[in-house]
Design brief:
This protein is of the alpha+beta class and 386 residues long. It has seven helices and twelve strands.
């Protein structure tokens, strides 16, 4: 799967799963809190029933006589009786502040029920009943909710992957067709390009021909096609290509590639400024280095203005290529490295140059920076650690 396909797939999956999980989480939260209130209400009902039982027992005791009146108690609850002035009379519930304005309330994991009694049996006007909140059904409810959330997450994720693949299927099909076209084109370009370049070199070496200007134009066109062929071949074989990582003299290689592009530079009458420190060495595969340098130089020449400035600098920490050209719009800088993305459609090309540079930079852990002012200039910097 290409990077553009991966980005589209991940964006769709994140939006789909994010919105789905949000809606499911909200629905599950509503269900959880509703069931939680139901559980607590049932426990409050138990307190109410105990309060009714105490009132009934007090009513029976009201008509009895004796030296000792047994207080109606239940070991599952704690209770206390209060007089009309809300003074504590007796009970298994310790003295404490009572929220008289609420019939049911909770405090410190305990549930309370305040019941008023009339007529006042044995001088009792209020009964307060309490018990500890039973956490077991709440824990079971929470576990059940988490189980459903986990199960829904697995189901939604699998469904999202399936839908995501359906979503990017047309894009993948188009990309596959384009790649097949590129492969076929690459195969057909090799022989004629090699033949043209070889014969141009022979004519230039052994014969003093008329039409030198025409020959230069043919050479420029042929080198453009040759570089395009090399790029397409690199893209095709990139993942299967056997790399030889060695200590490469980047200064020497950069000079060679500048010489290779000299015909194109002269044709556009660019003002070339080169600042290359000698013997700059870097551990990199030679073909990777050539593809990186060639695409930077090619873009700097292609998108430069006629008689513009082209600056190339190399030191121990970076390679910098600057051109006075069309520049890149600020909103396009973040996407300019995408495959088949072009800063200016009128200049032609497949839009694969910076994608190749990005692949090389990523493979070797370099840093890739683009600083551009639209319609003014562009500077591309490759940084590495020594």
């Amino acid at each position: 799967m290409l990077q553009s396909e991966q980005r589209s797939f991940l964006r769709f999956l994140s939006i789909y799963l994010g919105s789905t999980f949000l809606l499911f989480f909200l629905a599950l939260s509503i269900f959880y809190f509703f069931q939680k209130h139901q559980i607590i209400d049932r426990q409050y009902n138990q307190l109410s029933m105990e309060g009714d039982r105490i009132e009934h027992e007090l009513q029976k005791l009201h008509g009895q006589f004796g030296d000792r009146l047994p207080y109606p108690s239940n070991p599952l609850f704690r209770s206390a009786i209060y007089d009309l002035d809300r003074h504590y009379i007796f009970g298994s519930l310790p003295k404490g502040a009572v929220q008289w304005d609420q019939e049911y309330y909770g405090h410190h994991e305990k549930l309370f029920f305040v019941k008023s009694i009339y007529p006042y049996y044995l001088g009792v006007a209020y009964v307060v009943v309490s018990k500890s909140l039973d956490q077991a059904p709440l824990r079971e409810l929470l576990q059940l909710s988490l189980f459903f959330l986990l199960g829904a997450g697995v189901i939604f994720s699998l469904l999202g992957i399936f839908l995501g693949r359906l979503f990017i299927a047309p894009m993948k099909e188009s990309m596959d067709r384009m790649n097949m076209f590129i492969e076929d084109t690459t195969h057909e370009l090799n022989t004629p390009i090699s033949t043209i370049l070889t014969n141009i070199e022979l004519l230039d070496t052994f014969y003093d021909c008329e039409g030198k200007q025409e020959m230069r134009r043919i050479e420029i066109a042929s080198k453009t096609l040759s570089r395009l062929y090399e790029d397409l071949t690199y893209l095709k074989l990139n993942h299967n290509y056997h790399r030889t990582i060695r200590d490469l003299n980047m200064a020497q290689l950069l000079q060679e590639r500048i010489e290779y592009f000299n015909t194109l530079i002269e044709a556009k009458k660019l003002h070339l400024r080169v600042n290359i420190q000698p013997n700059i060495r870097l551990k990199i595969d030679r073909n990777d280095a050539i593809r990186m340098i060639d695409n930077l130089l090619s873009n700097a020449i292609k998108y430069n203005q006629k008689e513009g400035e082209l600056r190339i600098a190399l030191d121990n920490h970076s390679l910098c290529v600057y051109n006075q050209g069309i520049g890149i719009k600020p909103e396009e800088i973040a996407f300019i490295q995408n495959r088949f993305k072009r800063a200016n459609a009128s200049e032609g090309g497949f839009g694969i140059g910076l994608d190749i540079v990005g692949q090389v930079v990523e493979r070797y852990g370099f840093q890739f920076e683009i600083d551009s002012n639209y319609q003014t200039n562009t500077e591309v910097i490759i940084r590495w650690k020594k």
